[in-house]
Design a protein that fits this description.
Layout (H helix, E strand, L loop, with lengths): L5 H76 L5
Amino acid sequence: MPPPSTTTSTSSTSTSTQNRTRQYAHLAAQLARLNALVADTENLLRMTAVQAAYVRGLGGWMGGVFMASAKVLGEDGAVVERGEQR
């Protein structure tokens, strides 16, 4: 059997180097995309935290409105439930 030629080993080395280079380029692109998505997620979480504080404030206001309306409308509702009319 003849020994393998140097052209075949050089060709396979060149192909594996090209594959590795291509894979590294693909990995770098994926890491860049991941970095951009993580930055977007960080910004969204920051905005959500700010909005949560506003939602909490709105909840307090709405609780006050409901309590005030229950106080005003609750008296009329109690009178109608007892069967009395004004």
